[in-house]
Design a protein that fits this description.
Elements (H helix, E strand, L loop, with lengths): L11 H21 L2 H5 L16 H27 L3 H11 L7
Length: 103
């Protein structure tokens, strides 16, 4: 999928469905890659980055690291939201630069 092929859904249900579709496609790409494909330079489709100049295995490593980092951020926000802390305090922290007094 090229970046211009992606359409934002505008809602959580659509985002989850798009994530699941993308995750399945990424998993299929990794499972189907043999040694030659993993070593292939230019297998990625992002011409404006270094992707065309590095082996696919390096792209796979980088993407997996990004998924881990961003999934951790999402989980943190979900957990903070679940206890009512995030949404109540985030703007106060952003605007003041310090944590608000407890509610």
């Amino acid at each position: 999928m090229a970046p211009e092929d992606y359409r934002f859904s505008g809602d959580a249900a659509g985002a989850i469905a798009a994530f699941n579709t993308g995750a399945e496609a990424w998993r299929d790409a990794l499972i189907s890659a043999d040694e030659a494909a993993l070593d292939m330079v230019g297998r990625s489709i992002s011409p404006d980055r270094s992707d065309p100049d590095v082996p696919f295995i390096e792209i796979a490593w980088w993407v997996n690291q990004q998924l881990l980092r961003h999934d951790a951020e999402i989980a943190l926000l979900r957990d903070l939201s679940g206890i009512g802390l995030f949404w109540r305090s985030s703007w106060a922290v952003i605007c003041s630069g310090s944590a608000p007094a407890s509610a």
